[in-house]
Amino acid sequence: MSDERGQTGFWSWLRGNRxxxxxxxVLAGLLxxxxxxxxxxxxxxxxxxxxxxxGDLAWARVGPWWTGGAGAAxxxxxxxxxxVPPAAGEAAARPWFWLGSDTLGRSELIRCLAxxxxxxxxxxxxxxxxxxxxxxxxxxxxxxGGRVDGVMMRVVDVLYGLPxxxxxxxxxxxxxxxxxxxxxxxxxxxxxxxxxxxxxVGSPGHVATRDEAKRAVARDAVLRGKLEEAAxxxxxxxxxxGTTRSVIDLxxxxxxxxxxxxxxxxxxxxxxxxxLKNREFVLAAxxxxxxxxxxxxxxxxxxxxxxxxxxxxLTVPQAMLQEAFLSFLGIGVKPPMPSWGSLAAAGLQEINxxxxxxxxxxxxxxxxxxxxLALNFVGEGLRRSLDPKGRAR
Amino acid sequence: xxAVATQPVLDVRNLCVSFGATRVLDGVSMSVGAGEVVGGVxxxxxxxSMTALAVMGLLPPGASVTGGxxxxxxxxxxxxxxxxxxxxxxxxxxxHVAMIFQEPMTSLNPVFSVxxxxxxVLALHRGLGGRAARVEAAALLERVGISEGRSRxxxxxxxxxxxxxxxxxxxMALAGNPGLLLADEPTTALDVTVQARVLDLIDEIxxxxxxxxxxxxxxxxxxxxxxxHVYVMLRGRxxxxxxxxxxxxxxxxxxxxxxxxxxxxxxxxxxxxxxIGDAAAHDRAIAGMDSGLAWWPGDEGQGVLNEVxxxxxxxxxxxxxxx
Lengths: 393, 323
Description:
heterodimer; A: mainly alpha; 0% strand; disordered C terminus; B: 26% strand; globular; disordered N terminus
């Protein structure tokens, strides 16, 4: 286990671990750029459109800066010459087109930054949640032992056996249904109509049954029209902003990714706890009169730190990759909200033999690859430095 | 010596412990008086550690007490550990009975400083916190022979040698101010010189605090030196008990003789060390001709402890006891 604490340990770790240090630096730079620019990229421009979604068709398919905005001319030819063509070299002067623009004339740079923010936040948060669930679940399972352990681990085995894409799709569909009902309230209105009809159809002082009311509504178009109109007044559809919708979508994605990636963590932690449980200091801790719960929290948990840190660092790239994969398939982050995965998916459609806007796929992919590589370097560096056998003293 | 004037701190009567259908302790009785060192000796698997764990109420999963009683003096009260609920037993541990273990290397938590580990006991059992706890912890460290206790509080277990760690364990055990200390092979993992010093320390503290000590070891020589009364155990039974001098000078049970014979002696010229196996077979033959008295756990019939002289009991076949 690691005995180094505080800054000196951290800095000496950095000095002795070049790939880890590079990974950490790259990661810090990317995080700073993507998250720091989020207020700008998610903010609204003069036209009231969020900047990541604001495009000018006249500037569609502009190439990155070193191509001198070559694509713009072609775009002008395609759109029939109505928009004012940008002057040659002007693209290079507009900083948000350094990485070119997409088919709708949206800046690829801004979309990559915003998409990076989304990808990183989803990856980090999902990894955080999965580490939390996995650690607690595995620790409890390993510490309880016996039958409890058996049941808890069989649950993990079963979840492992299910194809996770299926789980994610099911979750996405279910959330979608719940959210759309919440917005349109169509079911609530139908129920309201039936209940009103029960009073309308029945004689005074006597309420009709549900079936009678339903039949009456189906038969009598006038009654139906009247009631439905009244229902619209009583239960109008709710308004939901695009931001709220995106937040709900992201939340679903987060839960879905975290829900499947805690399994490995739980197994690893369980194994660690099983090993620690039989160490003599645990018996000694019980011998001084600590309750089992306090033994777990005070004496076993601190010994898990290294493992949690390492697997946490290795879970982040996994979660990001899954986010990218799901977004690439169109299940994850919904357009126009960008993420590196969905940007790559959109970019793929622009690759064709006639007119390829290659920058639309290359930049998000390169960014994703660099981030994953950096994260793996950091995780691997942590693993090596925390493994007592691999540490040179 | 063995005559205990006052009521004992620990009184184990006919204790039986089983792992499912397998009996690991079969009617073990032993008692420890205040300020007395009692030795438990036997080979591994003889049940000496199991007895200590049963007293602590910390039997491994699967094992359970199936009979007998463990009476422990808890301050003014006298409680039966076996019949207590787990919560009440937890209150006894550390406060009235403490235990130190064989491996000082692994019995301290590697991620906490020794100060934190001692103050944890002080907070739990004596309600001490903050500065008071640190001062008391430093005093305890000094008491167990770690100089400059104050500055050592922040040290981590890996910065200490084995003997020092065992001293820290003893400090932790003393922190709750218990009346009984169970020492399960406390010096087996230590050098011989360190061994003697650690045992001297336990001895000093015993006299100072009138602490009852149960010293468990496989080394009959060591037990003979340190304990006033000795219990020899084999396969979950006490085969012989007597004062230390008697056990060493006139052992009656062949197993005790075998244990004594197998101890290597300085200067003795032998090609091979005697092992318990052949010594036991040899001695059993002699014992059979000699008295025909001794009963071995696992033999046919029933064994009972027979008092051959005051305070000296030997396990014999039921019905063959003499007085």
